[in-house]
Design a protein that fits this description.
Order of helices and strands: EHEHEEHEHEHEHEHHHHEEEHHHHHH
CATH superfamily of the largest domain: NAD(P)-binding Rossmann-like Domain
CATH class of the largest domain: Alpha Beta
Radius of gyration: 20 Å
Strand order of the largest sheet: 4-3-2-1-5-6-7
Structural class: alpha/beta
Largest sheet: 7 strands, parallel
Helix content: 40-55%
Number of helices: 16
Bound molecules: nicotinamide-adenine-dinucleotide, magnesium ion
Length: 374
């Protein structure tokens, strides 16, 4: 039995993971669950799974039951327990970073949905893996696809990664219309149903920038060998071009169930007849187009932040989190998100080899810059 902790169990990935695990009860047990504030749903999950550890992070903790752990420390506590082999980090935002680092430091497998962890603290995460034997297996569908295509091959055998992007709801819109897009329009994703923050990130393409940085750290490739192509059907989850010119792709219906299951079983596969079946005829036609960088400036800004390294990815991520929150509150325009990120990156500078505290300091300063704008 493999023992799993799910951080962010009440979210889109967390609830999907529990659905997948419900079909694999003879292989996995859930020993820890944490959520931010949805105490009602968390209580239902606790009743169904009986985890040894339950964490409710929200500062007021309303709805917490006796015996539940409270506060942000609950994430790290859950991630480092002896009765946990795999930490599925499905928290949204940099709030998940310390738990990722702590789990890797404790030698755990981190099934990583919380890409923000790796974007902000990629160097630290890799150093922690090297020192303590932890491993990061991606949940993100694109990175899961790449890992599945790679098999036993390493970065030496790869010429190029081709990451697919749905293009989001504004794929064909005029830049001026995109600038004034409303919250309802941004939350209407064409192919995936996800949490609100990543849905907005998919509309700005900031999500794809986060994914390029995530791929850089996961697969050890320089940025000029990671490309993005728009693929509106979200069926080809990503592609790997090998040094001999062969290109492998992983395909399937847009569902997070397979990448979640694979993050738990890699390099093995478990039978799961309930994962949505792929029908190539129904999926046809599959199309690809270039990204319109002028219409989605957050993508290039984010990739440039990745290239710059140091605190820049942390600044990009924090400014994006703060700007998306303000957009969702109706205080910032859609176009204002990328402009706010740009302003933060131009304003906040720092050391080239940041510690965890340097990264959190950069995060705070970036949020302050965005806070002054809206
Ligand atoms: P979500 O908003 O639906 O769920 C987030 C979960 O984290 C909830 O359980 C919430 O209670 C918890 N949480 C929120 N803020 C927290 C905090 N400050 N401290 C502790 N817990 C907190 O988000 P989601 O769509 O499930 O996405 C989760 C992560 O997975 C994100 O990093 C996202 O980019 C990534 N991801 C999601 C999808 C998807 O299909 N939803 C796909 C790929 C990657
Ligand atoms: Mg993705």
């Amino acid at each position: 039995m493999r023992k799993v902790a799910i951080l962010g169990s009440t979210g889109s990935i967390g609830t999907t993971a529990l659905r997948v695990l419900a079909r694999q009860r003879e292989r996995f047990i859930v020993t820890a669950l944490t959520a931010h504030s949805n105490a009602g749903l968390l209580a239902e999950q606790v009743a169904a799974w009986h985890p040894a550890f339950v964490g409710l992070v929200s500062p007021n903790g309303s709805g917490a039951q006796p015996g539940w752990n409270r506060g942000a420390e609950a994430l790290v506590d859950a991630a480092t327990r002896d009765d946990v082999d795999i930490v599925l980090n499905a928290v949204v935002g940099v709030a998940g970073m310390d738990a990722t680092l702590a789990a890797l430091g404790a030698g755990k497998r981190v099934a990583l949905a919380n890409k923000e962890s790796l974007v902000v603290a990629g160097e630290l995460a890799l150093a922690t893996c090297a020192r303590h034997g932890g491993e990061i297996i991606p949940v993100d569908s694109e990175h899961s696809a790449i890992l599945q295509c790679l098999g036993t091959r390493s970065a030496r055998d790869i010429r190029r990664l081709i990451i697919t992007a749905s293009g989001g709801p504004f794929r064909k819109w005029d830049p001026s219309r995109i600038d004034a897009a409303t919250r309802a329009e941004a939350l209407r994703h064409p192919t995936w149903t996800m949490g609100r923050k990543i849905t907005v990130d998919s509309a700005t393409l900031a999500n794809k920038a986060l994914e390029v940085i995530e791929a850089h750290f996961l697969f050890g490739l320089p940025y000029d060998r990671i490309e993005v192509v728009v693929h509106p059907q979200s069926v080809v989850h990503s592609m790997v071009e090998f040094v001999d010119g062969s290109v492998l792709a992983q395909v399937g219906v847009p569902s997070m169930e397979l990448p979640i299951l694979y993050s738990l079983t890699h390099p093995d596969r478990l039978p799961d007849v309930d994962v949505p079946r792929f029908d190539p005829v129904a999926a046809s036609p599959l199309t690809f187009e270039p990204v319109r960088l002028d219409a989605f400036p957050a993508l290039q800004i984010g990739i440039d932040a990745g290239r710059a390294g140091g605190i820049a990815p942390a600044v990009f991520n924090a400014a994006n989190e703060a700007a998306v929150a303000r957009f969702l509150e109706g205080r910032l325009s859609f176009g204002g998100i990328a402009r706010a990120i740009e302003r933060a990156l131009a304003t906040v500078s720092g050391t080239a080899v940041p510690t965890r505290d340097d990264l959190m300091d950069a995060d705070r300063r970036a949020r302050a810059v965005v806070g002054e704008l809206a």
